Amino acid sequence: MATEKKVTAIKNTPKHLLGIQNLSVLEAKEILTEAKSFIKLNRGSSKKLDVLRGKTQINLFFEPSTRTQSSFDLAGKRLGADVMTINMNNSSLKKGETLIDTAMTLNAMHPDIIVIRHQDSGAPNLLSQKVNCTVINAGDGRREHPTQALLDALTIINRKGNIEGLKIAICGDILHSRVARSNIYLMNMLGAEVNVIAPKTLMPNGIDNLGVKSFTDMKKGLDGCDIVMMLRLQNERMQGSFLPSKREYYEFFGLTPEKLKFAKKDALLMHPGPMNRGVEIDTKLADDINVSLVKEQVELGVAVRMACLKLYCK
User: Do the beta carbons of residue 147 and residue 169 sit within 8 Å?
Assistant: First the structure.
C-alpha cells in the first residue's frame, strides 16, 4: 500500500501544475518518488485509498483524449475523490461561452481540483488565475504536457534505474508537439543528453537554444541513444503542407527495426500515443515487449497522475 509522506518541496509552491518549466529539480523528483509508491498499489488487488476523500475533481477536456483523460479519472477515483468529467460537446462553450465564464461557473461549485486540456497554449494558466482551486495542465496547445513528461521519466527510471547520463532521442513532429517540449525540459533537468530528430519542416526555429542537438538524419540522431521517443504527427495542428507524403515520411523518419539498430543494442522505444502504425513506427516493433515501453507508459501514467493529484491538492 502507498505510504503517506509529508509534502516537502511542493508544499510551499503555488498549488498549480502548469508546466515542467515551473518545476524545480527537487519538485520533479518528489513527484516521481511519490509516483513510485503507487506502482505497487495499482498492481495489487486493493487499489482504493482515501487520500482525497471529500475532494471534488473536475476533468475539463476541450480536446479528444483517451489515455490522459481516463488515467486522470482513474487516478482521482483511486485516491477517493469525487470525479466529474464534463462532456465539452454538450457544454455551454458550444453556445459561445468563454473560458473565463466557464471558469467562474465551475468556481462557484467549489471544486478542489480542475484538470484541463485545451487547444490554446496558456489556457490552464488563465484558468488558474480565475479559480480558487488546484489546476493541473493535461496539455495546452503546443506549449506543454507536464504529466506526460513525468510519466515518461518514471517509465525510463523504472527500466533503466536512472535518467542522468542517458542519451535520449525525441523523433518526429517536434514543431507541433507539447510532449516534445515538456520532455526536453524534464530530461535536461534530470541530467540526460537529448537529441531531436525531424524533417526541416517539422523542426522549430531555435530548437538548439533548449539545450538539445538537432538532426534531420535518423542514423546520426539515433547514434548511441539509450531511449528512442517517437512522436505522433499532429495533423490537426498542421495548416499547409509539411510532408510530401506519409509513405515518404515513414521511409525517412518512421522507426523500423533497421533504423533502431543505429541506437544502442539495448535501446528501448517509447510513444505517447495514439500511434499511427506504418507512419511513425513499425507495427511489430511497437508490439515487441522486449523493446517497446508503450504499455508501461500507459500503466505508469496512472501512478504519476495519482502523485500529482495528491501532492497538489491541499
Answer: no
**3-state helix vs strand vs coil in the chain, percent to 5:** 40, 15, 40
How far is C-alpha 116 from the chain's CA centre?
A: 13
Which residues neighbour 34 within 8 Å (Cβ) at sequence distance 6 or greater? 5, 307, 310, 311
Tens-level pLDDT at each residue, the chain (314 residues): 555 555 566 765 658 999 999 999 999 999 999 999 999 999 999 999 999 999 999 999 998 899 999 999 999 999 999 999 987 765 656 556 788 898 899 999 999 999 999 999 999 999 999 999 999 999 999 999 999 999 999 999 999 999 999 999 999 999 999 999 999 999 999 999 999 999 999 999 999 999 999 999 999 999 999 999 999 987 554 454 566 678 889 999 999 999 999 999 999 999 998 899 999 999 999 999 999 999 999 999 999 999 999 999 86
- State which amino acid sits at residue 295: K
Q: Is residue 198 within 8 Å of residue 161, measured between CB atoms?
A: no
Residue 183: CB atoms within 10 A of its CB come to: 28
Cβ count within 10 A of residue 274: 11
Instruction: Answer yes or no: are the C-beta atoms of 229 and 253 closer than 8 Å.
Output: no
CA–CA separation, 52 vs 172, rounded Å? 38
What's the sign of the alpha-carbon dihedral 149, 152, 157, 158?
positive
Cα distance between residue 24 and residue 141, in whole Å: 23
- How far is the C-alpha of 253 from the C-alpha of 247, rounded, in Å? 10
User: CB-based contacts of 314: which residues, under 8 Å, 6+ apart?
Assistant: 15, 134
Q: Residue 96: which residues within 8 A CB-CB, separation 6 or more?
A: none
CA 141, 147, 153, 156 dihedral sign is negative
CA 5/CA 312 separation, integer angstroms = 13
